[in-house]
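User: Teach me something about this protein's shape.
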Amino acid sequence: MKFTISHSTKIRWRNRFLFVAAVAIAVLIVYIYLNSHTAYDFTHLTQTAQSVEGAAFVSLGNASVPGMEIAAASDSHYLYIDPATTAFAVRDTRNNFIWHSRPPGTDNDALANPFERGVMTSNLGFRYYDPIRRRIWRWVYPDSAENEQAEIYSIPNGFRVVYHVGDISLGINVIPPFMEAERFEERVLSHIEDEDDLRFLRRWWIASRIEGREGFMQLLAGISDSVINVNRMLELFEYIGYTLEELEYDNNAADIELDISLEFFTVSMDFVLEGSTLTVNIPLDEIETEGDTLIERLELLRFFGAGSAEEEGFLLVPSGSGGIIRFNNGKYREDSFMSSVYGLDGIMNDIRPQVMQPVRLPIFGIYREGAAMLAHVYRGSAMAGVNAMVAGNTNSYNYAWFNFTLRNSIAMDMAIMEGANSEMTIVQPYTYTGDITVKYHFLAGEDAGLGGMARVYQDFLVEQGVLTPLTGQEDRSFYLDIVAAVDMRQHFLGTPYLTTEVMTSLADAGRIVSLLEAEGINRIQMQLHGWFNRGINHDVAKRINPIRAVGTAAEKNALNRRLEQNGGALFPAVNFQLTNFFSRNMNRTFEAARDPSGRTGFMSGIDREWRSTRFSYHRNDFHTLVSPGVLPFHIDSFIPSFINHTDIRALSLTDMGDMLVESMYRRGAVDREHSRLIVMEQLDRLHAEFPNIAVYGGNDYAIGVASHLIGVPTEADMFYILDQSVPFYQMVVHGFIEYAGASVNLRENVSVLDSLLNSLATGASPRYTLTAEPTRIVAFSPHERMYSTHYVNWIRDAAEHYAIFNEIYRDLRTERIVDFEVLADGRLDLTGAGQITVTVFEGGTRIYVNNTRNPFVYGDLVIEPNWFYVSG
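Assistant: First, the predicted structure itself:
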């Protein structure tokens, strides 16, 4: 019989084949596309300390601290440890002051409950996600050391503690539900001698009648109803030496799959005494976990150096330029000080507090009655947060500490119908696996104070090659931000489109320079914003596409030569981590940062009504966050493109020293700490090509490449718990790098006089942002933030500001600030507007600033209201 296929059948099978082929080709194309992007291998940047082998702990002798033993000693300090609790102490022989990790009065603290006392005794605490994504806290004293689950080893110049954290007991799950009858007699009953115990076992173990398990003894499920019976059974099995390996054998023999998941952790901490510095290191790659758990956050040495309610002293926190919290200031009902190092994570925070400045230096300090300690993060700073609290809340101590966020999470709304609320927590699966290292410097005598804290951190940065002293007496720099072009939204027949509006051409910039120089302003450091790739909010800086209406490359070179003749320079400004949301030369699939859910990271300018950094009224006010994993490739293209465009070898980096971006989604994920290390590596590359770099923001990792620091904090944030604003940042960098704060004419509610007084107190050079065109051009656009930049309004004010500042600070350019004191508080306004202060330089010069409306009498000195006085 001849079989034939109809024409319609052939067509049907052909269509099926074509459909399958099309799907296969589409899948292949997507696969090739997804694997066409080169991922940057940043594993070589991971920072770890040199590993050392620990030996059995050997005490160097009995300590003068009760209950402790000597673990290490230097010329000036002793390191002690309590083997029972793993609490430790450091004694400074210069003043015999003892710094305790556990406050000595912990057991007698009437405010602290038992849980709080366990926290006060713990060197480390951590929060983790359990298998169902609940957040749970563990502390190494109540969950490890108190249960004798901590091991202490001797290492060179210190000790290591290995904490086994969690309940190692499996409960009734350590007992098999079935055991072969012969094996039960031989392995269990034959090892028990007490008749009562034998009767107890025979009462709860019976011959199995379950089909398929004949010949087995069965443990009655009812035993779980009695804690006493469970504990007795566990004691008997522990007595006969029953092991987890035997449990696995018996369960396999009975064909039982029993999934035992322990929430159990092993964490190591190294403590090394080096001269007057204690280095504490946590190797993250050595953390071991049992079960489906993910560690989210670490709390390190929360009470190390805590001051009691009977002591006088203060806490130094890196709020803005620096803030002082006095011991026992009565603000225990206020929120504690909490701030993330290098600012909030842009990819995780939809809401940005209006008054919060990023923490630029990962430090805190504690001063206690003639002794001081300065702590700073050496490794892991991008994950760090700084915290501080005063006595009276949950305990009787004033204390400061670091925490470290290892993973982020996001709650996704999973509601499938109206009125049904359901969320799923998505946790960042990976984390940084290097080390977390914190150094604690101890100060005594005349060095124990704010000036000593700044000096010890400054010396550390000098030793690391980050800071190099300035030389030569020159006029101080004047910082001028020129806005060249902005992107504007226009309409044609009701249809919106983006265009570029030139606010200041290079010719205009030259005329503004002439006016400033005619007023006596020298050493103008000009930051040129919006000169390429569509303006300020520019496209990805892979290639340089100059805006012709701003000026040619020859005009840039000429303006730069003119500025250099008078000690200044032209710094073309560029973003690398923020780019235009509608950037035409960006592959968002590979190059945009993403949160844990896979959503593209973006930011907008602040909407004052909503305080939102994710939403804006203006279409062109959005920035895409660039994944740090593609920064090296962008800079590969940028460097030759810039060099081919202009002879200028200066650059202004507006975001690389100001913020950090991480990308958390599966492919190409980069954690926050590796983001910092990638940025540092790229900064070194840029510095090799552009020796003159101006860095905005001034995060500590970028200071080493900066010739100038711009937009550094010059006051503290207005947290209620703070008492005083201090220029700690300036005390660290003055005499090494010239710097400026925010633009005077863009600050709200701050007069030129206030800015002058702030400059004199902090050493921050004048800075102004100017445009040639009136700012009404940018009304009703995101750039209306430049509401006061028209140059005609500011030339005279800028000249007077600079003249007074330069006259005083010209001879102080190379001198360190050795001390700063608040002589009196006026209105307690943390911007400094209510303080009478004195800034002391190493050569003896003292600058008194009265930021109040009343005269201030200081000995024979009278300081006029809202004015200053210089002595020495």
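Now, about its shape. The radius of gyration is 33 Å. DSSP finds 15 helices and 47 strands in the chain. If you'd like, I can walk through any region in more detail.
User: That's plenty for now, thanks!
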